[in-house]
From TrEMBL:
It holds the Pfam family ABC2_membrane_5. It comes from Hymenobacter setariae. GO terms for molecular function: ABC-type transporter activity. The chain crosses the membrane at residues 12-35, 55-73, 94-118, 138-157, 164-181, 218-236. The keyword Transmembrane applies. The gene is gldF. This is Gliding motility-associated ABC transporter permease subunit GldF. The lineage of its organism: Bacteria, Pseudomonadati, Bacteroidota, Cytophagia, Cytophagales. Keywords: Cell membrane, Membrane, Transmembrane, Transmembrane helix. It is found in: Cell membrane. Its main location: membrane. One of its GO terms (cellular component) is plasma membrane.
Amino acid sequence: MLTILQKEFNAFLNSPVAYVVIGVFLVATGLFVWVFPDSSVLDYGYADLQSLFNLAPWIFLLLIPAITMRTFAEEKKAGTIELLLTRPLTDGQLVGGKYLACLLLALLALVPTLLYYFSVYKLGSPAGNIDSAATVGSYLGLGLLAAVFAALGVLASALTRDQIIAFVLAVVACFLVYTGFDSLASVFDGAPAYYISQLGIAAHYRDLSKGLIDSRDVLYFLTVVAVALLGTRLALRSRNW
C-alpha cells in the first residue's frame, strides 16, 4: 500500500494537478479571508477564521473530486488496471494506497492556511485573542471532511472508466452528503429534523467547529469513509468494466 501511495502522490506532484488544486484553494480562501469586505477578517473586527472554515468545504466539494476522478477511471480507460490487479496486492492495499495519496494532497492544501491563523493570532488585540480551541476543532473537521470527500471521490472513480463522469458523480455525492440531509431536515420539525440532520456531514462539522471534539462526530466521519472505501473494494471485485 505504501508503494501505491508513493507512486500516486509522486504522479500528482509531477503533474499540474497538485499545484492547480493548492493554488486555487489558497487564492479563493485568501480572497475571502483577507480581501472581500463582506468576509474579510480585517473588516469584520473579530479575531477568528470563520470565513475560511465556512468557505473551505465548498471549495473542497469541487477540488477533491478533481483530484480523485483519475484514480481508477484513468487506469480502466488505459487498461493498466489489469496489470495492477495481477500484482501481489490485495484490493484493500490498492484502494488504500490511492485513497491516502488523494487525501494527503488535499491535506497539503490546508497547510499554508496555518499562516492565516498565525496572522490573525498576531493581529488580535491583545495578541493571541483568538479562540484556538475552535480553530483546532475546525481544522480537524476540515481534515475529516476531506477524508470523506476523498473516499466518495475514489468510489465514484471506481464505478466508471470516464474521468468526467467520475468527477460529476463525486461532486453530486459530496454535495448530497454534506448539505442534502440538512435540506431534508428543514422539511420536518423537532426530533425528526434533528436525527435527519445528524445523518449529514454539516451537522457534525459545525459541532467540531465550536471546539467541542466529540468522539461521536469523529466516529461518524470515519464510518462514512469506511463505508465508501468498502464500496470501492466491492466495485473492483465486480470486475464489470
